Amino acid sequence: MRGGAALALDGQAPVEADAEAPFYLPYGNEVAVFEQCHARRLAVLLKGPTGCGKTRFVEYMAWRLGRPLVTIACHDDLTANDLIGRFLIRHDSTVWQDGPLTRAVREGALCYLDEVVEARQDTVVVLHPLADHRRLLPIDKTGETVAAAPGFQLVVSYNPGYQRMLKELKPSTRQRFVALEFDFPELEREAAIIVRESGIDRATAHGLALFGKRLRALDQQGLAEVPSTRLLIAAAQLVAGGIAIAIACQVAIIAPLSDDAALVGAMQDLVAASFP
Ligand SMILES: Nc1ncnc2c1ncn2[C@@H]1O[C@H](COP(=O)(O)OP(=O)(O)OP(=O)(O)O)[C@@H](O)[C@H]1O
Ligand SMILES: [Mg+2]
């Protein structure tokens, strides 16, 4: 572990508070498990709702392991060539340019593919020989087969229940990954994250975290989307900038979540009850 002050919570492993370290508050043994996966060259799948800390975790692990991080946002137009690379025409010659996946493989980077289920199957299959013991990337267009540098690790994420399901990943893809499950932090942990990310006082952060928990319980009453830690932090940042809490909750939490008048009214009632 690198130097720097540490922040401990409820007996959890301390978190680096080094100036250059991304702030990440663990919820369990995910740091140790990920480190073992890295050491054993196992690819990792992160499952969890939007805004619960998956990207921050990968940023933290890349820092902790001293590896560069290459992030690729997946979408249904993403092709294998976008990942691997392509020939570019320069004057009267063509030159090969590595795509982000090839760069990560050569550099020994952590390669993070966000929302992997959004990518087409024919794009995802290029990951297969990289995500098992072979650790190879064949580049059909040049005839080269690149062996992954030692620090290379494939990390993918997906939001369960969001648009597409994990089952849309082929079993032959899924079964190449160790899966870490993320969820929203429990109350005290979420309040600590809000304090750290926004600079607001502990009592207000606690109130926002509690408000978030209550809103998440409204999913039974038809709230299709529940607030992420990211939204709670956005409200807290507005409060830190001098915006009244009721307005901050309205613009940063309620309005992004729903257009339904009844649900918006119920959420506003909860704000009034939470911040009298
Ligand atoms: N455990 C945590 N430690 C520190 N910060 C956290 C943690 N969990 C959430 N956060 C905060 O919440 C914000 C949103 O988290 P992040 O961007 O990592 O979400 P995500 O799971 O990657 O979401 P998405 O699926 O939408 O990409 C972060 O920028 C950070 O401020
Ligand atoms: Mg993310």
From TrEMBL:
Residues 44-177 form the ATPase dynein-related AAA domain. InterPro entries: ATPase_dyneun-rel_AAA, CbbQ/NirQ/NorQ/GpvN, CbbQ_C, P-loop_NTPase. Belongs to the CbbQ/NirQ/NorQ/GpvN family. PANTHER family: DENITRIFICATION REGULATORY PROTEIN NIRQ (PTHR42759:SF7), MOXR FAMILY PROTEIN (PTHR42759). This is CbbQ/NirQ/NorQ/GpvN family protein. SUPFAM superfamilies: P-loop containing nucleoside triphosphate hydrolases (SSF52540). Residues 190-273 form the CbbQ/NirQ/NorQ C-terminal domain. Keywords: ATP-binding, Nucleotide-binding. The lineage of its organism: Bacteria, Pseudomonadati, Pseudomonadota, Betaproteobacteria, Neisseriales.
